[in-house]
Amino acid sequence: xxxxxxxxxxxxxxxxxxxxxxxxxxxxxxxxxxxxxxxxxxxxxxxxxxxxxxxxxxxxxxxxxxxxxxxxxxxxxxxxxxxxxxxxxxxxxxxxxxxxxxxxxxxxxxxxxxxxxxxxxxxxxxxxxxxxxxxxxxxxxxxxxxxxxxxxxxxxxxxxxxxxxxxxxxxxxxxxxxxxxxxxxxxxxxxxxxxxxxxxxxxxxxxxxxxxxxxxxxxxxxxxxxxxxxxxxxxxxxxxxxxxx
Length: 245
Prior knowledge:
Blueprint: E1 4-16, E2 24-36, E3 40-44, H1 51-59, E4 66-73, E5 76-79, H2 85-94, E6 96-99, H3 111-121, H4 126-139, H5 156-168, E7 174-178, H6 186-197, E8 205-209, H7 213-219, E9 222-227, E10 230-235, H8 237-241
Helix pairs in contact: 3-4, 3-5
Domain ABC transporter: 6-244
InterPro entries: AAA+_ATPase (IPR003593), ABC_transporter-like_ATP-bd (IPR003439), ABC_transporter-like_CS (IPR017871), ABC_transpr_LolD-like (IPR015854), P-loop_NTPase (IPR027417)
Keywords: ATP-binding, Nucleotide-binding
């Protein structure tokens, strides 16, 4: 029997629009959601529906106004909303990963070091982390001549592949994906989707935002559709999204 890696209960998040007129906008209205080990849950819905807000609350980039976000760790369940910042940073390194559309890398750092560092944070030795990083970068077809080049000079698609490699090397217990293949050409998109698809067999729980219907049909074991900060429907991709064109 599979067990939940993530449990979200009655999650609420509001934002105050200081730059406009100070009014408050509610992004999440009491959301409940579970993600089990090996399960790929895709979040669907229009822009502004609350999908990315949910990811950022789970990652603790945003603090919710109320509710609980519980991560099942090797030491038992942890309420992420109540965790001290230092403990949250440590947990992000080992058991919780986040892949956004944009790579954030230290200055003068190349792809090999970015990806190997992610492996080390997840408990790998220096040598094993470099081997795993090389395997991930090769699998995503990043030219080896670029592995030690400052990430800031890479193209958008190259940076996105580095981000995916870092998120999936010695993968964490829970991986959050926010439009991870948006900048990729068709061949590299296929490579990235194949890599993401392989995570389920490793028991990784994935919570992802895609606007790509074909990707959701291909990857998701469950699709959750958001409307105005609430879950409007959930089920298989075919049930929620209909037939893919």
